[in-house]
Amino acid sequence: MPRIAEIQVFNYRLYFYPIFQNDKFYFDELQVPSVMHKYEPELDSLYVYDDGVVKGFIKIEGTYIARLFVEPVLQNASIGSQLLEYAVKEHHADHLWVLEKNTKAIRFYERNGFVFSGEKKPEEGTAEYLMLLKRSTRTPV
After folding, report:
1. I need a surface site. Which of 7, 13, 66, 90 has the fewest CB within 10 A?
2. Under-50 pLDDT residues of the chain
3. Domain 2-135 is in which class?
4. Do 10 and 57 form a contact (C-beta atoms < 8 A)?
C-alpha cells in the first residue's frame, strides 16, 4: 500500500501541482500515509503492475477508470498501456475523466484508443475542467 500511495503522490506533484499551484495541498496535505488510508477500503478495485517491484496501478469502478498512475521514472515503458489493456479486456473499461490541461495523459489515452466525447465538467473546487474520454469502438486496445 505505501508504494501505491507513493506513486500517486509523485504523479500528483509532478503533473498537477504546476496546474493548480497549491502548496498547502501538494506539500502538506498530500502525504503517503493519508493517501494510503484512502485506498485501504478500496483494495478490491485496485490492480497493480508488479514484476517484483510495484511500478504502477489502476483503479477500476465498474467500467470506469478512476485512476491510472505509473512511477514517473518508468513512464514510456508500456506499463500504463498494459494496465489500460487489462482494464479494457478484463473489466470492459470504456470511459474516464482527465484534466483538460493534462495533455500528456490525453495523448496517452488517445494512443490507446480513447477519444474525447465532447463532454466536459468543472473539476470540483477549481477553475479547471475535466474531459470525458470514451473508448473508441474502432480502435482496439
Report:
1. 90
2. none
3. alpha beta
4. no
Q: How far is residue 84's CA from residue 93's CA, in Å, rounded to a whole number?
A: 8
Tell me the three cell numbers of residue 118.
Answer: 465532447
Q: Give the cell for residue 131.
A: 474531459
Which of 11, 19, 8 has the alpha carbon at shortest distance from 101?
Answer: 19
Alpha-carbon distance of 64 to 92, in angstroms, equals 9
pTM above 0.70, yes or no: yes
* Burial letters 49-68, b for 16+ CB under 10 A, else e: beeeebbbbbbbeeeebebb
Cell of 140: 482496439
Helix (H, G, I), strand (E, B) or coil at 44: helix
The rounded mean pLDDT for the chain is: 93
Domain parsing of the chain, residue ranges: 2-135
